[in-house]
TrEMBL record:
Protein name in UniProt: LysR family transcriptional regulator
Provenance organism: Vibrio fortis
PANTHER family, alphabetized: GLYCINE CLEAVAGE SYSTEM TRANSCRIPTIONAL ACTIVATOR, HTH-TYPE TRANSCRIPTIONAL REGULATOR
Taxonomic lineage of the native organism: Bacteria, Pseudomonadati, Pseudomonadota, Gammaproteobacteria, Vibrionales
Domain HTH lysR-type: 12-66
Family: Belongs to the LysR transcriptional regulatory family.
PROSITE patterns, per database record: HTH_LYSR
Keywords (A to Z) from UniProt: DNA-binding, Transcription, Transcription regulation
Length: 316
């Protein structure tokens, strides 16, 4: 003998009725259950026939529940809510995430080195770091909480809502310490093979344009279409590259990369910006922290500049 003798044989009618009663619409219930309106209407009618009682009064443009229908709906709502709570408790809670999209060089040379700090600062969140190549294009999507992008279109982004400047670049030539000799001065380093992160050689052209006596001797050029590849080639002793010194503070401090005395540090045509896509206290804090970290890195660079007689924009 069944322990619930008054329950209808099929529970489909109960489910259809609960949806109709909650939404007060056969049409909306059909959409929610992904069936036709006639199917929902038929299931509710079969339930009424089996219970031998009217649950829903069908009017021309609306419906209303009978007293019995309202009683059944309240019982179903409580029952389904309790079942949902039990089933939800079996599932492993979904961890919250902070999604940071960033220019490839910033992601690989800055954010990766700060993963431990990010995890300690936000213990309740999974940190997701996604490198992007086309930084400006990334603004067309909303699948991130914070975007760190790198652009030459400074006038286009200044004073835009949700966007703020993170920093300028601080460019100077560097090479591997393995190439350093006693007589390797600035003039000598500029005769080494040049490594470029872009085909147009913009970084080198920009830096050389402000040098009082640029070298005239032809040099070998190699392009990689990636700052990280150019830096890796530089670290392996393949030549010299002009790069953003803030990206290589650890290598400069440890002596892996060498920037000669009296080198001039200049800004490039590129600027780093932050775009806050998610408005929350956590992302506000993340932005403040990244800005503070950038100031710390800039202070380190200024100390290195003083030690090595580098000059230029770093002195401002």
């Amino acid at each position: 003998m069944t322990p619930y003798p008054n329950l209808p044989y099929s529970h489909n009618g109960l489910r259809a009725f609960e949806s109709v009663a909650r939404l007060m619409s056969f049409t909306l219930a059909a959409d929610e259950l992904n069936v036709t309106q006639s199917a929902v209407s038929r299931q509710v009618k079969q339930l009424e026939d089996e219970l031998e009682i009217s649950l829903v009064r069908r009017k021309h443009r609306a419906i209303e529940l009978t007293p019995q229908g309202n009683e059944l709906y309240l019982a179903l709502r409580e029952g389904y809510s309790n079942i949902e709570s039990v089933l939800a408790s079996w599932k492993e809670p979904k961890q919250k995430r902070i999604v940071i999209k960033a220019a490839l060089s910033y992601a690989t040379r800055v954010l990766i080195s700060k993963v431990r700090q990010l995890n300690e600062r936000y213990p309740d969140y999974e940190i997701v770091i996604i490198p992007v190549i086309e930084e400006d294009e990334a603004l067309n999507y909303t699948d991130y909480d914070l975007l760190v992008f790198h652009t030459q279109l400074k006038n286009h982004y200044d004073n835009k809502p949700g966007i703020r400047v993170l920093r300028e670049e601080f460019m100077a030539p560097v090479c591997s310490h393995s190439l350093v000799t006693d007589d390797l001065d600035l003039d000598s380093i500029l005769t080494l093979p040049r490594l470029h992160p872009t085909l147009d050689h913009t970084d080198w052209k920009t830096w050389l344009s402000d040098v009082a006596y640029p070298p005239t001797t032809p040099v070998r050029n190699t392009s990689f279409l990636s700052l990280d590849l150019a830096l890796n080639a530089c670290l392996s002793g393949q030549g010299v590259t002009v790069t953003d010194l803030l990206l290589i503070i650890p290598e400069l401090e440890r002596g892996f990369l060498y920037c000669p005395p009296n080198a001039k540090i200049q800004h490039s045509a590129w600027t780093y910006y932050l775009h806050q896509n998610t408005k929350s206290a956590v992302i506000d804090d993340l932005i403040d922290w990244l800005v503070e970290e950038n100031e710390n890195e800039l202070s380190k660079l200024k100390r290195l500049a003083q030690q090595n007689d580098w000059y230029g924009v770093i002195e401002r």
